[in-house]
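EI: anyone free to look at a 668-residue chain?
SC: sure, send it
EI:
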Amino acid sequence: MQYRAEIDGLRAIAVLSVIIFHAGLESLSGGFVGVDVFYVISGYLITRILVSDTEKGTFSFSEFYLRRIKRLMPAALVVILVTLASFSLILSPASYYELAKSAVASIFFIANFWFMENAGYFDTSTQIAPLVHMWSLAIEEQFYIIHPFIIVCLTRCFGINKAKLALLTLFATSFVASVALSEFYPDFAFYMLPTRAWELALGALIVFYPLTLTKKTATGVAALSAITLVTSFFIIHHNNIYPGYLALLPTASTFLLIQACHQENIIKRLLSLKALVFVGKISYSAYLWHWPIVVFYRIYINQRAFNVYEVVALTCVTLIVAFLSWKYIEERFRRPQYSVKTVYKNAGFAYVGLLSICVVILSTKGLPERFSDRVAGFTDKREMRKISCTNQLKLIDQIDETFCTVGDDWHSSDLRVVIWGDSHSQHWASILHSVSSGKSIAIAIAPRKCPAYIDNQLVRSYYPKYPRFNEDCKTRNTHTIEWINQSDDIDAVIFASAWSIQTLKLYNEEFPNNKQDIADELKDQAIGAHLTVQGLTATIQKIKKLPILLLSDVPRPNRDLNECRFAEEQSLFRQQCQQNYHYLDYDTVLKWHKITDNALISVADTFSRVSVIVPSQHLCAEGQCKTIINNQLIYRDEHHLRRNLMPATNIKIAEMLALDRYLSSLKH
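SC: here you go
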């Protein structure tokens, strides 16, 4: 088959867009769509090989998969090994434990399943996940398992036309699924083969349906497609619904570029420039290495934004490492002198070795022996999440789960309180336990998961990871109100939620959801605050005459302060956090909380039985908000409190917020 240099040039454009995007160049907001370009190219090249070998009668499944293994596995396994080794120096035990799990998924080319279940591609946590980029390779490998059977078997058994029909059906079905699911199941649509297969199939269709273009037409099509492709790197944004319709911009442009560049034209000549072709040849290694390099540096400098010099440096380092990887790993293992037996034997040894390393990391929960017990103590996220429940009770008949109670025994206590909300109701558990124990006060954390005001009519929340979130919350909240109203045991209710972030997600028919566009946060906050007032007012009116406390957000760090402290404890000359993590800037906190806090205050002013506690009014003074109390960092992550604080620290926080006085007042 004739070598097409311009396709390597196109690969170079794709990989550079991804690298520069991940290195943090904000203006290249859609650089991640370079992956879509790769899919179209891969679909085209693989199908061209399959059709050519089938027509010549030389196709062999074993030979095909052997070539794929030799092409993809050596560099990928080396990257995983080096990533595990290098990140052992800078990752906390909890983070290293998660890395090992993602490494196992990557080894078996199912990383897309792992990350779909555990993190959205643009989530904050994903930006420091060293192997998240392996999701796209997993999709390609899964496609390579299926695609030869579609092309070769159908062609041999039923003729080429049936293979074409099957490919068209695959393209259409997958594209419709992508469009239909991208808004409501965004993680599935982004990470899964059924909603990505159409991009690879689009490349395959080039082989079966080549366009016959005049030289003039081909030049025009190529130029227009190149402009559209480059434009997509700048106009697509991670807040857009993606892939969906928008993925047509980069994929259709790539489809037309490959078609038009069959003819000699200026775009073909530009894409065939030696520098671009060289980068294209090393693009696989460049893609593999770029993300661990970027993430290592990001963690090393404590996750501050990169400047333009760092973006350039990271890109250059990636290309240098990629060249070495291509020359000494890719090219070496591609050589035909390696027999099938040798390839599979070496692959087996590599798999067993890597899996053994991962098993050790997983069995030890992230090799905490790398650091002192004190360091491991404030980096263990599992310990920070634990709740010591006094009781586990099935309190609400219609909700099939047990609920944690803290403080004293629920059945024998004089005062019984319900704290109701999402994960920000749970993070108060240890504080409430410390301040209630021994005082005949019991507090039930029930129900969790849903803000109390979500009713799927007056107030809805945009939560694409859980498409039935609003319906389920309506059901749970309705049953909770019924339980509170019918129970003689409940003396008060506390509403707690991630109020400030929820305001960015709220909508209803009057204020429809428009999250496919880049969020206007001030506008969204104002709308969300309005809907919060409406929703809370309606919910409170449905509850019998009980005292109600609105517990607002603690000041949000919006960064993991434990990583700052962890960096201080390491001897790697790591750059410390730019900001003093002992305090948060009050003005920054106000930007997040002021609108929401005012909304809760206005609700409390409406009802004589409703009180409000605004933590920022008590934890902040002289332009700073405390993050360390009793010499303990009180945060678990970017916005949750730790649940494993010492009792004295819990009591101190409760006293600062006057939460202890509020609970005591309920007994009188």
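EI: The radius of gyration is 28 Å.
SC: 👍
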